[in-house]
Amino acid sequence: MSFQDRHTTNTFVPDESNTRLLRDAFGRFATGVTIVTAATQTGVAAITANSFSSVSLTPPLVLWSPDKNSRRFSFFENATDYAIHVLADDQDDLCWAVAKDAFALNDQNLNVNAEGVPVIENCLARFECTKTAVYEGGDHVIMLGQVMRAEMREEGDPLAFFKGQIGRFATQ
Questions:
Q1: Which ranges of the chain have pLDDT less than 50?
Q2: Quick one: three-class SS letters along 126-160?
Q3: pLDDT tens-digit profile of 87-124?
Q4: For a designed S-S bond to 128, which of 25, 118, 149, 170 qualifies (C-beta 3.0 to 4.6 A apart)?
Q5: How many CB atoms lie within 10 A of CB 150?
Q6: How many CA atoms lie within 13 A of 53 on its CB side?
Q7: Domains of the chain by range and CATH?
């Protein structure tokens, strides 16, 4: 029996009638989970994002891609500075709180960095960024940020996202 015979596949041409299929196919790529924070007039705005990637070491650049149709989009579109927090597997409650409420972190007594951005402590990694470019990307934008400061924990496992579910990835 060949590898292909053991696995059922679904081949399709993405279009507006099957966006759920495309979303499910994208979801087959396991990612980490991040929370992005920015300062606003009403406190800290936060959004969960799995569309995060390192881009360059010199200069230090990262990207993430918020949905233009999100009610939270304007907070990040208007922010010059923001912080991207890579969550540890013990931070799933924080992930769900932010997923449900853009202002869930307002009662957390967060520290604020030199640029006034609220930051979450004890994440696996944190990247404090200044926005350097925004590129159109369909129904999302691609935000490129220069990492001004970074912090990481020496121990811990990541919170993971796969097939629309939060899970854990244990290192061996």
A1: none
A2: EEEEEEEEEEEECCEEEEEEEEEEEEECCCCCEEE
A3: 999 999 999 999 999 999 999 999 999 999 999 999 99
A4: 149
A5: 13
A6: 7
A7: 31-153 (2.30.110.10)
